[in-house]
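As promised in the previous annual report, we have extended the structural survey to additional targets. Below is the entry for Probable electron transfer flavoprotein subunit alpha.
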Amino acid sequence: MLRTRPLVCLRPLFRTYATAANPHALVFLEHRDGAIDSASLSALSAAQKLGGEITGLIVGSSDEVKQLIPIAQKLQGLTALLHSSSPQYATPLPELVSPLLEKILSEGTPFTHVVSAHSSSAKSILPRVAARLDVPAVSDITSVEHDTSSNSTTFTRPIYAGNAIATVRAPSSVHLKFFTVRSTAFKAAPAGSSEVEAKAIDPVQVADPPTEHIKTELTKSDRPELGAASRVVSGGRALKNAETFNSTLEPLADILGAAIGASRAAVDAGYADNSLQVGQTGKVVAPELYMALGISGAIQHLAGMKDSKLIVAVNKDPDAPIFQIADVGLVADLYEVVPELVKKLNSQ
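The corresponding structure token record, generated without further manual editing, is:
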């Protein structure tokens, strides 16, 4: 929950940067509960596609940063690590973190690219900094290639709810390129054996910040996190109400060790929490197994799960759009299929 007051916007200064022969990426590493987010590890993998040096950046409170430095130093692909700690960075609000990034990326910076996961936080921070520096930002990319000879970078990104792929090229005249990464398009970078050098950066304190963090409310669950789960069981509006949604999906998810997801219709009807929504306006997932139960397959839902390796759909409507992308489709009543499936799995 955020409390805000009017913010006076200043016209950004135009800056110039020295052209680098080889790419050097700055990767914004997000974290939670003492661990680096898997989406940020995917962003690190994307940065490796540029073929140059990679510096990681961690911001947070003093205790958080101290805990994360040894972990980040061993990440495969990093060549250096920057870190900055401040009580203001305990919750990375755009108004508080942006000045630090602007300082790091000031005139004479060695960096040619700024990379992050396509997270709620980074989607607010990176475009803000890019605007201040008067450079473009490309969001939600699924591939990246850098041509060292021309110093241009080419990206692909889904548009029109994933029904088309746009190819975007940032030419050599754009010396600093910002982009966010769709985590499902890249594998998470693993830990390596060697440690990179870590360097502290003085924080940029914001006096009288315009935004204040009040509290964070998280839905706690013993199941895998939806965005990173290898198996997902999702339910739609056909599950009638919240009680039926939980009683039907939870036994199956427990047996499979799966995360639970929901269609937008199910979330809007109050069957499931908003954090479980899969789709264009929710989370984008690409698990090994995605089970769509009672989901018709609206275009915005398909945009969030159609890259799953194996899609299993159960729906009474034989003309449901979900069957067009399903690898395994069953035209049946989910209230008969799911209990029977649970029974069969329990007997294994």
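The first strand starts at residue 2 and ends at 4. The domain at 24-200 is CATH 3.40.50.620 (Rossmann fold). These points will be discussed at the next consortium meeting with the crystallography subgroup.
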